[in-house]
Amino acid sequence: MTAAARTHTAALERSILVDSREHPGHCWFQQALADGTARRATLKTGDYSLDGLEHLVLIERKALGDLIGCVGYARDRFERELARMADETAIPWLVIEAIPAQVEMRGYRGRVAPAAVFGSLAAWSCDFGIRVWWGGAPDACERWAHRLFGAVERRVERGDNVFRAAGCVGLTA
Length: 173
Prior knowledge:
Elements: H1 3-6, E1 16-19, H2 30-35, E2 38-41, E3 48-50, E4 57-63, H3 64-71, H4 75-88, E5 91-97, H5 100-104, H6 114-128, E6 131-134, H7 138-158
Parallel strand pairs: 1-2, 4-5, 5-6
Antiparallel strand pairs: 1-3, 3-4
């Protein structure tokens, strides 16, 4: 996250966890890794979480090309991953480094139709309880993820029912 972006987000009490398999060239939170507010860890599933709150929030990051592959040839593997995320965390997130217009305009390689992309996302939301966030550019996705983690952390600290809207009444840290 750039210095300018960090001034618009509150510091977190917990470390951000970055999955050790996340490729460094495509990884969010590079500055946080450098300054020690994030650390690499082997997450069972997902790419990002908060230390000690993995059971509450996980994020799976997808660039548009990766998402197209998950809708097409890698669908079975990805759906197994979504099932694991749904089993392991209260609110699993799929954060897409693109905007819907890029899909509508077929701004990707491959034969997957835009309707298949949007239909798959809708089905995965229903089948696995996955929340989808179209974040646009990677740096915007990173800022949003940081804000999500801050919102979760604040609610846990207050003892709020973090995920009432998710149908997970009674879950606590």
